[in-house]
Amino acid sequence: MIIDAHTHIHEHADDRLGRPATTDDLLRGLDAAGIDMAVVIPLPGVASNDYVRRQCDRHPDRLAPLYTPEFDDPAHTLAKLRHYAEHHFLHGVKIHPRLQGVTVNDPLVRDVVGFMAERGRPVLFDNFPHGRDLDNPALLPLAYHRLAKEFPTATLVLAHAGGHKVLDAFMVAKANPNVLLDTSFTLDYYRGASVEADLAFVVRRMHAGRVLYGSDFPSCDLGGYLEHTRRRMDELSAEQQGAFYGEAAARLYRLGRESCSPKMSPTSYAVTPTVTADTATTR
Ligand SMILES: [Zn+2]
Question: Residue 178: CB partners within 8 Å, gap ≥ 6?
Fold first, then answer.
């Protein structure tokens, strides 16, 4: 089973700029690339939580929505998240610190992390240092080391594996069994740079289950990114491949009918033995 653990859809035609970015475009792309499922992530100003959830509800076998906390309404951020969790299946939340103007140091962000930790659900953070706040240390991979230590029962996923800081993201994941990485976008953005080789090294060195395949569609082409990734990640064991291209995402975000069963207790999502800190190989 292949799962793209990081995709977006565009709610408004004006934003699509002629790019294939609708739900149907996503589904067509999944079919063409032989990808079974996609995790679809809301993005403020691009696609709302409600829109993404409704689109995914139409295709529950193929699409699973994350939820993005609404930090522009801080008095109600937690209440809205709680309301969502009470009425819909909460696969996980995505926080985009650069876009949403928050950092891991904000009390409200930490409250969200605590809320998710209590429920045994993951928090995905954009982690691609870029643009205006490039020099803000609270947005760099190392900022998540302290957060992971302070919330040991929270599961944190660093999207884009830290961008050009990929080795920092790797060291944070090695030091903290509750930190995972996704490999979306970075491989295309840094095509031809040493970052590509570093990311391949990281995926190879991480224990199976600690790193998730994703594309960041529509920024990256679904089939093209998968092909590019397969080419660069050609030294993975069969176990690593199975986990990286689907099993880890299925377990983490509880995808598929069985894993969404209400019978599954919150504790049945746990960091499995393969999802441990890589202390044995750390020197
Ligand atoms: Zn994204």
Answer: 148, 151, 152, 153, 154, 155, 156, 271
Instruction: Find the 6 Cα to ligand 1 centroid distance in Å.
Output: 6
Ordered domains of the chain (ranges, CATH): 3-264 (3.20.20.140)
Q: What is the pLDDT of residues 38-97, one digit of tens each?
A: 999 999 999 999 999 999 999 999 999 999 999 999 999 999 999 999 999 999 999 999
166 CA distance to ligand 1 centroid (A)? 16
List the structure tokens of 149: 């230590």
Number of neighbours of residue 199 by Cβ within 10 angstroms: 28
Within a 13 Å sphere around the CA of 46, how many CA atoms are in the beta-carbon half? Answer: 20
CA of 216 to the centre of ligand 1 (A): 5
How many A from CA of 47 to the centre of ligand 1?
12
3-state secondary structure (DSSP) of residue 223: helix
With beta carbons less than 8 A apart as the criterion, state whether 123 and 156 touch.
yes
Ligand 1 centre to CA of 182 (Å) is 10
pTM for the whole thing? 0.91
Q: How many CA atoms lie within 13 A of 282 on its CB side?
A: 13
Amino acid at 95: I
> Which pLDDT value is given to residue 144?
98
Contacts of 61 (CB under 8 A, 6+ apart): 37, 257
Alpha-carbon gap, residue 252 to 209, rounded angstroms: 9
124's enclosing H/E stretch is: strand 122-126
Q: How far is the CA of 93 from the centre of ligand 1 (A)?
A: 12
Structure tokens of 50? 């409600």
